[in-house]
């Protein structure tokens, strides 16, 4: 061993001996464990009884279809968001009850029910999960599904790499979940405060779990970024010029450029920390030439661009939803594109606003303050563009639109509080207070709103039926009530001086607001029930809610120019693009038929289990590194290398669907679509008929 | 509604579907992807160089850059790296001519020269170890080892890749897969030479100043 470890280590089991010291009698852990095991067993049981294994293996686990990969990304993101929500529930309930010197404690805690060490792990896991394995996968999944459809591509540029990215993300989530049961998680905040993350201050395996989980997941995200950028550059259908690229695709491009350039910096940061913890180097240690602020700088050089990595796709989603439900083209397309790219560019030069209080001096602070405020300009442009799109339009408040408008409000309030934080003088007062927490939750919630809007907006495209509107609206309103009840009090508490990460509150005057937040979390919990109910009811009523190609009747982009649900080859024949809003153009001219003159052969990639295997090996590798089981780490690393080499010799990776088969499948789908349209299923609000009628007239004159 | 489109299309005669469209050209798509990957790799080195700039002053009373760095030796390493890249380049001109033997010879020469480089680096670090200038000694040494060995690790991967390509060229000849991999490896190998130039300039030459 290169470093002095506290506690046992042996060559076969590594540090697993530490497990004997974990407190498994803690009922909180026990509940989490039971819930996961019960859900897991039910799922396994169902799959076995229903003889679904073959189906799951063929259709999902080994797939290279970008839509299915996207769906799996989103499912992983939603499940992890649920886990992160539980952590939030614990933070809020702990803070609501652990107030004042006389507040009692249970379960071994002096106050409340979470001992400080456990509480610290809870908020670390919450932050890390929500950003890296909930929000990021949901957005990446959405980009995966929609971008190829919007540009008229048959697939991503590298389908195999795409699957690999998914499985690395899954491994990242799996490591966090494993940490819940086997060992513990980091207690140093999701930003990994140095030198608290150094071995002497965090001698357990928690920080190692945090490191390896993020490291493996971020490799997956970087691969996904390469894939999406190359797809957008290389795979566009004829006529899809840069000036006609849908805005969601543009923001995906901007976002992935950020990911491609910033995630490697995170990788380096974590690697240097790994060297400190595993090899005893002195990057971020106190003394012997280590530099703690170096960690903070490097982390936020990734961290700030990362927040724009997640916010830009959300902006793109709003730019798709708002025009569809305003029945109007997006206002200011060009400025929207420029604003996205400008945000991506400026986001790189503001990282130091996360530590104005470091003592860098007035000039440095002034520079970063101004740079931060610059971001507000393109963001403002976007808000105005959406507002002008809605101005004097026929707005319909279907659920996606509700989420989109909610998201805009959150963007405005979050952006304004961000501006306040960007003033160093104010920042000195509120830094590390819950005001900052309220600000960034405000921003993340805007992403969540946009994502939920996007899920309900594109759901019918992917699955062929709409989500239940009535329950969807309840979900929205309860969620919004929760947002208001939690975050207005939180902003207020920030002004009252409450600092972040408190497991025990000394100041009883804060309690009413903390209880209000607790109520808000309850409202969120109710909204989750409606969400699940919505899914269940919609799946039950899927026949009734079936839709045709253009699910909303007023959709605008190319993704609506193929069947719903989208066949695995996306477009039977590659569409030619004539207009910025191609589908709106076709609808206007009565060209909505999806039947081309004839069909041709289609070239497709074959399913492969290799990405799944590599993912599982990387899970073994991550687990081995966390517990310092060197032999297992070596074996799994070598196995990964062998699998990669084996794949490089495989020449049988594609196949052809003959034109006759395409025709047969297309006929089935056209028949289904016609049936749905005759039943009136495709019509959201009667809007479908109107433009078509006017189109006929237009064609005549 | 469509007044914002650049040119007007006659909807009566507009072609809606492209039957001939075969998507992308696989070799150029894969090369683009590799360029993108290299951009991310460049960011890794950029972060390491930035960090090195901070740590170079943090010798913590141990050996400083001037004590352990031998720029003349590093210059010979540079010569070896560049010869290897040159040999690979010759191999690639043979690829244009379609000469399998030419490619194999170029790859072999590049491979051997790469091995020589790694051998020289090995000796350098063995000397450092013997002198007690280990990465655990100070922030400066941690950064020094990390940056040079990260480049070294890339060189090892490049050699492994070259080895695989030798086998694949012999077995498959110039199939599409082999050709794009040869092109990507060319990019990778040139890129490592460029990174080495940065290491040489910022670590070795600046180190003695
Ligand atoms: C107009 C745009 C924005 C401005 C002006 C802004 C400004 C700031 C400033 C100055 C801080 C540092 C506060 C402190 O610690 O003292 C901060 C923190 C933060 N912001 Fe923003 N921000 C903006 C947008 C965003 C977006 C889009 C997100 C995420 C999607 C975001 C997420 C965060 C997070 C996570 C933190 C706290 C990090 C931590 O210390 O744990 N912000 N913001
Ligand atoms: Cu920031």
TrEMBL record, chain A:
Q: According to Swiss-Prot or TrEMBL, what is its membrane topology?
A: Multi-pass membrane protein
One Gene Ontology term of the biological-process aspect is:
respiratory electron transport chain
Family matches, as InterPro entries: Cyt_c_oxase-like_su1_dom (IPR023616), Cyt_c_oxase-like_su1_sf (IPR036927), Cyt_C_Oxase_1 (IPR000883), Cyt_c_Oxase_su1_BS (IPR023615)
Where found in the cell? Cell membrane
Domain of life (superkingdom): Bacteria
GO MF annotation, one = cytochrome-c oxidase activity
**SUPFAM superfamilies under this entry?**
Cytochrome c oxidase subunit I-like (SSF81442)
* Residues annotated as domain Cytochrome oxidase subunit I profile: 51-578
TM regions (residue ranges): 28-48, 69-86, 123-147, 159-182, 209-233, 254-275, 295-318, 330-351, 366-388, 400-423, 443-463, 475-493, 513-533, 604-623, 629-646
Instruction: State the UniProt keywords alphabetically.
Output: Cell membrane, Copper, Electron transport, Heme, Iron, Membrane, Metal-binding, Respiratory chain, Transmembrane, Transmembrane helix, Transport
Q: Which GO terms describe its cellular component?
A: plasma membrane
> Which family does the record assign?
Belongs to the heme-copper respiratory oxidase family.
Q: Which PANTHER family match?
A: CYTOCHROME BO(3) UBIQUINOL OXIDASE SUBUNIT 1, CYTOCHROME C OXIDASE SUBUNIT 1
Q: Could you tell me what this protein is called?
A: Cytochrome o ubiquinol oxidase subunit I
UniProtKB/TrEMBL annotation, chain B:
Q: Which UniProt keywords apply?
A: Cell membrane, Membrane, Transmembrane, Transmembrane helix
How does this chain sit within the bilayer? Multi-pass membrane protein
Please list the GO terms describing molecular function.
cytochrome-c oxidase activity
Gene3D superfamilies named among the record's database cross-references: Cytochrome c oxidase, subunit III, four-helix bundle
Q: Where are the transmembrane segments?
A: 34-56, 68-90, 102-122, 142-167, 187-205
Is Transmembrane helix given among the entry's keywords? yes
Q: What InterPro entries does UniProt report for this protein, alphabetically?
A: Cyt_c/ubiquinol_Oxase_su3 (IPR024791), Cyt_c_oxidase-like_su3 (IPR000298), Cyt_c_oxidase_su3-like_sf (IPR035973), Cyt_c_oxidase_su3_a-hlx (IPR013833)
**Entry GO CC:** plasma membrane
Keyword flag Membrane: yes
**Principal subcellular localization:** membrane
A GO BP entry is: aerobic electron transport chain
Every Heme-copper oxidase subunit III family profile domain range: 1-208
Q: Its domain of life?
A: Bacteria
Q: How does it assemble?
A: Heterooctamer of two A chains, two B chains, two C chains and two D chains.
General function of this protein: Cytochrome bo(3) ubiquinol terminal oxidase is the component of the aerobic respiratory chain of E.coli that predominates when cells are grown at high aeration. Has proton pump activity across the membrane in addition to electron transfer, pumping 2 protons/electron.
Protein family according to the UniProt entry: Belongs to the cytochrome c oxidase subunit 3 family.
The name this protein goes by in its record: Cytochrome bo(3) ubiquinol oxidase subunit 3
């Amino acid at each position: 061993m290169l470093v002095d470890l506290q506690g046992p280590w042996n060559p076969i089991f590594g540090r697993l001996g530490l497990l004997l010291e974990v407190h498994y009698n803690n009922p909180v852990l026990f509940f989490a464990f039971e819930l996961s095991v019960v859900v897991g067993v039910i799922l396994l049981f169902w799959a076995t009884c229903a003889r679904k294994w073959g189906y799951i293996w063929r259709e999902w686990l080994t797939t290279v279809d970008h839509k299915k990969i996207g769906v799996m990304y989103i499912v992983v993101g939603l499940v992890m968001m649920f886990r992160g929500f539980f952590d939030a529930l614990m933070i809020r309930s702990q803070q609501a009850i652990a107030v004042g010197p006389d507040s009692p404690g249970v379960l071994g805690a002096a106050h409340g029910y979470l001992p400080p060490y456990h509480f610290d792990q809870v908020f670390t896991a919450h932050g890390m999960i929500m950003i890296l394995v909930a929000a990021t996968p949901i957005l990446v999944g959405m980009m995966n599904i929609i971008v190829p459809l919007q540009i008229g591509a048959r697939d991503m540029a590298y389908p195999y790499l795409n699957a690999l990215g998914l499985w690395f993300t899954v491994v990242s989530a799996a490591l966090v979940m494993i940490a819940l049961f086997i060992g513990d998680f980091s207690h140093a905040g999701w930003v990994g405060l140095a030198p608290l993350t150094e071995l002497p201050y965090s001698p357990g395996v928690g920080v190692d779990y945090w490191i390896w989980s993020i490291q493996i997941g971020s490799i997956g995200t970087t691969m996904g970024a390469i894939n999406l950028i190359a797809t957008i550059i290389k795979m566009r259908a004829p006529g899809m010029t840069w000036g006609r690229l849908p805005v969601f695709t543009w923001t995906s491009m901007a976002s992935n450029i950020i990911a491609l350039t910033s995630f490697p910096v995170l990788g380096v940061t974590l690697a240097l920390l790994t060297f400190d913890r595993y090899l005893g180097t002195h990057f971020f240690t106190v003394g012997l030439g280590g530099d703690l602020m170096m960690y903070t700088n490097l982390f936020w050089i990734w961290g700030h661009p990362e927040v724009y990595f997640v916010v830009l796709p959300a902006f793109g989603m709003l730019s798709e939803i708002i025009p569809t439900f305003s029945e109007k083209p997006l206002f200011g397309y060009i400025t929207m594109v420029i604003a996205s790219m400008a945000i991506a560019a400026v986001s790189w030069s503001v990282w130091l606003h996360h530590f104005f209080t470091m003592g860098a001096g007035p000039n440095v602070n002034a520079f970063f303050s101004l740079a931060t405020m610059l971001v507000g300009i393109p963001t403002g442009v976007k808000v105005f563009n959406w507002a002008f799109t809605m101005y004097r339009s026929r707005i319909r408040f279907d659920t996606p639109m509700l989420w989109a408008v909610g998201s805009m409000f959150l963007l405005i309030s979050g952006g304004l509080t961000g501006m306040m934080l960007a003033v160093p003088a104010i920042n000195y007062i509120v830094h590390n207070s819950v005001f900052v927490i309220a600000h960034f939750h405000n921003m993340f919630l805007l992403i969540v709103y946009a994502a939920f809007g996007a899920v309900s907006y594109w759901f019918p495209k992917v699955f062929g039926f709409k989500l239940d509107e009535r329950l969807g609206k309840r979900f929205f309103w309860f969620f919004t009530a929760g947002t208001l009840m939690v975050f207005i009090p939180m902003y207020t508490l920030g002004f009252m001086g409450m600092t972040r990460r408190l497991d025990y509150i000394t100041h009883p005057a804060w309690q009413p607001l903390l209880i209000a937040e607790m109520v808000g979390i309850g409202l969120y919990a109710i909204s989750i029930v409606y969400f699940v109910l919505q899914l269940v009811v919609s799946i039950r009523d899927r026949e009734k809610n079936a839709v045709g190609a253009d699910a909303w009747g007023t959709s605008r982009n190319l993704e609506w120019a193929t069947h719903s649900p989208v066949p695995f080859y996306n477009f039977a024949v590659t569409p030619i693009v004539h207009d910025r809003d191609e589908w709106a153009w076709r609808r206007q001219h009565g060209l909505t038929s999806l039947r081309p003159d004839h069909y041709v052969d289609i070239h497709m990639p074959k399913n492969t289990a290799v990405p799944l295997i590599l993912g599982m090996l990387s899970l073994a590798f991550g687990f081995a590194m966390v517990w310092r089981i060197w032999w297992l780490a070596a074996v799994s690393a070598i196995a990964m290398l062998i699998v990669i080499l084996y794949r490089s010799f495989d020449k049988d990776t594609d196949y052809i669907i003959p034109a006759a088969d395409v025709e047969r499948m297309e006929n089935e789908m056209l028949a289904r679509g016609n049936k749905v349209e005759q039943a009136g299923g495709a019509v959201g609000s009667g809007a479908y008929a109107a433009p078509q009628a006017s189109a006929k007239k237009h064609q005549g004159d | 509604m469509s007044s914002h489109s650049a040119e007007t299309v006659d909807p009566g005669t507009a072609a809606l579907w492209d039957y001939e469209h075969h998507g992308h050209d696989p070799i150029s798509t894969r090369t683009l992807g590799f360029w993108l990957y290299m951009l991310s790799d460049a960011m890794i080195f950029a972060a390491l160089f930035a960090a090195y700039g901070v740590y170079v002053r943090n010798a913590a009373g141990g050996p400083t850059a001037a004590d352990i760095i031998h720029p003349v030796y590093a210059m010979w390493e540079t010569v070896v790296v560049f010869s290897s890249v040159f040999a690979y380049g010759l191999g690639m001109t043979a690829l244009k001519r379609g000469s399998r033997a030419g490619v194999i010879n170029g790859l072999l020469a590049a491979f051997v020269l790469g091995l020589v480089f790694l051998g020289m680096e090995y000796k350098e670090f063995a000397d450092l170890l013997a002198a007690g200038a280990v990465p655990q000694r100070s922030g400066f040494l941690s950064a020094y080892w990390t940056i040079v060995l990260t480049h070294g690790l890339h060189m090892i991967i490049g050699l492994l890749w070259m080895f695989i390509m030798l086998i694949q060229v012999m077995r498959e000849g110039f199939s599409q897969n082999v050709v794009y991999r040869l092109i990507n490896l060319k990019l990778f190998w040139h890129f490592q030479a460029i990174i080495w130039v940065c290491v040489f300039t910022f670590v070795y030459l600046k180190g003695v100043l």
